[in-house]
């Protein structure tokens, strides 16, 4: 209602003053008539008061609906990353499982993480995690700059090949940085990019790690492999 009064100052002043004067006049007349023993004028004053406040309520409701329709839409910031791909490791040529992309716009700094959760146990739905592991940091990046980050790298322990999250040497990684291939076949994962800035929102890229398909290299299955589900399902819109 206050926005209506602000946007229509002259009309609001005339409306309020005119209504107030008319109401005060009728109340004064009713008071005089009651003292004279003629109470009929009191009902006119009451009716006018009800009409006046009803008009105020209607204007308030109209003003509320008008202000809601005038609210600007919330604009979502343009993503920092584009042309995203998630690749499995390969033996020949020897390549690590990787996350590749390009920056869509400039930025001061950003960090990449992998969030992963693995299944533990049989006969029950028990998922451990998700846990977050740091992958890489980029500074002063520009549009079209390429990103190429290792998601999994190999290391040896007891003469056997194992896999760790992120880039590392051949030594055993810290606790929690290994891929638990012996205890579970699948890992639910995502690469998370957190840009610097108060209004910047994280960007997520989901994938599954399948350790059953190969004894040598785990297979990474990105979420965009499943986009066909949206294409095949009939539209749910009425």
Number of continuous helical runs: 4
Radius of gyration based on Cα positions: 34 Å
Give the beta-strand count.
9
Widest beta sheet: strand line-up: 4-3-7-8-9
Instruction: Extract low-pLDDT stretches.
Output: none
The structural class is alpha+beta
Mean pLDDT: 75
End-to-end Cα distance, whole Å, is 36 Å
The number of domains is 2
What does this protein structure show overall?
- The protein starts with a helix and ends in a 6-residue tail after the last helix.
- The chain has four helices and nine strands, in the order H-H-H-E-E-E-E-E-E-E-E-E-H.
- It folds into two domains: 2-69; 81-232.
- The longest helix has 30 residues, at 40-69.
- Strand 8 (203-210) and strand 9 form a beta hairpin.
- The radius of gyration is 34 Å and the shape is elongated.
- With 238 residues, it is of the alpha+beta class.
């Amino acid at each position: 209602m206050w926005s209506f009064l602000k946007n229509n100052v002259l009309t609001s002043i005339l409306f309020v003053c005119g209504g107030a004067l008319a109401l005060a006049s009728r109340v004064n007349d009713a008071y005089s008539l009651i003292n004279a023993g003629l109470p009929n004028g009191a009902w006119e004053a009451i009716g006018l008061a009800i009409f006046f406040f009803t008009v105020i309520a209607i204007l308030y409701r109209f003003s509320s609906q008008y202000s809601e329709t005038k609210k600007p839409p919330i604009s979502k910031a343009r993503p920092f990353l584009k042309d995203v791909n998630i690749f499995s490791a390969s033996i020949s040529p020897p390549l690590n499982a990787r996350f590749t992309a390009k920056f869509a716009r400039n930025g001061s700094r950003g960090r990449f993480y992998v969030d992963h959760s693995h299944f533990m146990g049989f006969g029950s739905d028990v998922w451990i995690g998700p846990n977050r592991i740091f992958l890489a940091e980029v500074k002063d990046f520009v549009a079209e700059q390429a990103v190429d980050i290792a998601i999994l790298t190999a290391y040896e322990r007891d003469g056997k090949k194992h896999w760790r999250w992120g880039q590392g040497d051949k030594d055993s990684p810290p606790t929690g940085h290994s891929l638990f291939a012996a205890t579970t076949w699948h890992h639910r994962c995502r690469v998370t990019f957190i840009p610097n800035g108060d209004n910047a929102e994280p960007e997520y890229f989901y994938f599954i790690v399948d350790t059953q398909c190969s004894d040598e290299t785990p297979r990474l299955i990105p979420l965009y492999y499943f986009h066909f589900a949206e294409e095949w399902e009939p539209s749910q819109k009425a």
